[in-house]
Batch of 2 targets.
Target 1
Amino acid sequence: MTVPNIKDIRWRYCTRWDEKPAASLGISLLRLGICRTRDWTGSAVDFVERGFKRFCKENGSEDARKIWEGDLRIMDHMVELTEQERSQARAEMDGPAQRVFIAGDFSAAASIPIGATLPHLEREDKLLPAAFCALFVHDLWKWTRVYDVSDALAYAEMGMVDMDEDQLRDSCYPQVNAEIPQCLNGRLKMNPSRALHLLKAMQPKLRGSTSRQLVGHLLEMHEHSTGRQHAWPHRLVQQIPGLEEFLEDCDGVGPGALISWYEDDAITACFNEEMSYLGQNGPLEPSLLLDISLDQPGQMLDRQVTQVFDHVGAMLRSLASAAKIVAIIRELYDEHLRQHRLKSGVQTEPGASGIRYE
Amino acid sequence: MTRRKHHSSSRSVAVKRPVRPPGRDGFTRVMRELEATGGTRPHPDPIVERLKQCPEAFKAGETVGKMFNALKHGNEDSAAGERNLPPAGVVIPLV
């Protein structure tokens, strides 16, 4: 038997053509210290991957991953392509890609049943639940779509338009409004700036350790996200040919968080209904899309790479702080279920509860 | 305060080489490799070069790839009647 013997070959192989964008990015990452010389294995793609992985880890990706389910990828196309599509795209191109993208997707919405947490906050100050929710949702929206009571109210309102009284009696839609906790009634739209001001003023006076932890993590999360805006893909339509058409064919963006009161409440029912239609009319658009133009002088490239990586780092640090908040909220919810002799369906273990699956 | 007396010598003093920051050599080497990979100059791909010396290896690899694809996608390829034959002189054990 004769089997060709090839030694010292890496398990993953990229053609030189495909390595070129990674090499251009790698040069910048090496200059900026994000990649290190020991990351070099002979492949530019491996080199960038190693640097990127370490960068993510240093910015809290492991903590974030305990709650948030999704991907963060560096790609030389704005969407993931099959091998066949890639070959086709390559045939139509004059040269290797001159642009790389960082795309982020949430593959499931993390369940955040906040109902049992609100009384802990209310015991400290009657405005604390509203301030906490307002800033938490505001800061989460910088990184992901958040499905909460406002989405459920809008969905329920649309659903109730053609319903008669009998249908309304059996429907969960009227419950969305009815189930809003007393402490949030009339305060759902608190301005995030006011919420921040209140939280900062209340923080030194907090008596309970749970409230102190929650507010502490929230202010930490806010610090990481200050000055950042959500990097929605549509912000790049002017720069990237074909992106506008791609987004027009997409069927919206999947939420990365579901904030309900309790696990089986009316918000969750609306969410489940709405999500069952999501993705039926096209692919889901990425939750985040950042681009790096490779055909520019070194200094300008480094500046753009720094901006993009600063954004990604801020996102990971902010989501890591948010993950600590969600873990506490889930613990409090589990405690509530134990006290009321109910069975929990929400995981509190690392691995995150995935409610919406594509 | 005492000062140490410097030994004067008629011998020529060796010129000190500039001190390189640690790891600078590695930095330059990796930078060169990346520039070569990303550059416009044709740069030989070591794996392709080795495959050129041994085309049978490429054929064998291609066949193994097709076998794995067939397993992964439920033998869709074999339904089309395409046979995957290893190059002459190469025997690939069945999986």
Target 2
Amino acid sequence: MTSATTAALASEVSPEAQLERIAAIGYPTKRDETWRYAPHAVLSRLSFGPAGAIDGGMLSEIDAQIPALDGPRIVVVNGVVDEARSDITGLPLGLDLSTPVPGAGGAADRIAAHPDSGVEPVADAFVALNVAFSGDGVSVHVAAGQHLDPPIHIVMVSTPAGTHNTSCSKLAIQIDAGGSATVVETKLGAGSEFGGANTRTIISMGDHATLEHIVVQDVPSTQVHLSRTEVTQGVGSELRARLFNLGATYGRLAYDVHLAGEGARADLSGLYFGSGDQTLDQQISVIHAAQNCTSRQAFRGVLDDGSTGVFNGAIEVRPGADGTDAEQSNDNLLLSNRAAANTQPRLEILADDVACKHGATVGQLDEEAMYYLRTRGIAVDEARRLLINGFADQAVHDVGIEVLRTWITQRLGHDDE
Amino acid sequence: MLHVKNLTASIGGTPILKGLDLDVGDGEVHAIMGPNGSGKSTFAHTLAGRDGYEVGGTVTLDAADLLVMTPEARAAAGVFIGFQYPVEIPGVNNMYFLRTALNSVRRARGETEIGARDFLAIAYEAMDLVEMKRDFLNRAVNAGFSGGEKKRNEILQMAVMQPRLAVLDETDSGLDIDALRVVASGVNALRGPERSMIVITHYQRLLEYIKPDFVHVLVDGRIVESGDHTLALRLEDEGYADFVNHELDHVPGRPMSGAPT
């Protein structure tokens, strides 16, 4: 972090102030509902400090992993923008994509000034650490009324090295009134050292803005990945969030949506696909704070070996948020008798005239379907693959970008269609 | 072609097939009729290789021992079963499923696989046979299909797989008269000197459309009478009661209470 950006962020984020805050609130424990299934012993081995550039030695393995999307791209490595891997030339009109420029009032200012309006402050030590140590912030700003077609790709890479093993980074996305864009956040890692990343994304959507926000987490299984997103939506705005939680020994996607403007719509879907001893944790919260908003949460998990899936999904309907239409579903497929799925809906409804439904399932591969496929000549492994993919594809299908859909499909171990 | 000798099958110690004998020659269509609970579906699934049965006796297809094979190996050997209750598989595209099935058996037989483009021609031809619309291929396998669509999808699969032996388990159940006609004409189009069929049905109605070479009456796990298609007409008139009672009369030590319902 340069001295200039430190100064710009100082009022809110001095590391000392944040560390004092952590000392006061402590780290999350199993008693914290949203951290109940986290591997706390593993988390205690994470170490934090200021972002710092690393030499490019292990980064060559990253290049091949990055999905080749059309459109601008910013690559952040251990909290520091990697300009050589980024491409922000020829930006379309109406898009301001910036990384901090010392003294020029770039992204850092915007992030520092970003009002967390409406979003509850999160009293959580990892958020405080992010505030203290996130390096170069990245800012995506779509001007009012602009419709941007090519996806904006933000790649966050963690390669544990140096004095501390965990990096922090921050992304701010602002879509002004009537604007629309697609932002893809890809979380990757390199190296075989233990460590992790702690990322935070703050999204502000103006009235009638549209955003498709795709998050793909696929860091190595030696790493921990903590991702948190906070969204505030204006009147009539529409968010489509697609969350893929695939990598890490502990992969956590926390996603909070605040429907602040009347008639806002949030459609969240996702897939977690675990094996080995992974724990994949989704902490989803949608707050209906205005009238006539709709939200959908549809998450699927496929869990093999000794992996654990967590879905903790909250729907909170504030007083006066009449006309709310909210639904939530969580379906899990267990491929091993050692795998586990923990699913918990949390509904708090304080308004009248609310339609709210939720459902959760945990099941195994359908034996009758296996038999049916085998009578058609399809061998056991292939039949399993077909059924697993069929289950997962219902989440992958929601992704509008074909290149990314293919990337995810290949990552899941099938490259058909 | 198919030789079934003293076939027995039980589930959890309860015998269902009790010594079934059947010989099916090349190109022949055999109808198996019988009351509910007589073992018709068990026979079909014993041929297809479903888990969970304790099976005895011998079944050979073109001299190969079917009973030792997995279901997928039986498919590669040329067995096809049309399900009474086709299984819904959400998320699995019908076309992809069909092509995977065809290429799986081709691979097992050491034949070349068929690419997506060539497969389309095969699929379209099969679909015309069962009067299926093109968009059908892009839907998930049987998911949300009507009863008639599911049964037509079974015949479509049969047309794509081109089996040596087709076992159709109550393909007529749940069909209205129009769907029955479509399904039956699909089956008839697939008749040929290289393909034999076992058509399992409770009612004679299907046999008005698919004329069998032989009709067998299955009661309490055994074939108790065989004849030509006139036997089916007789069953239509007289029902199964005669056969049920007749059969039980000749089983030593069995009380009358065992009659299937």
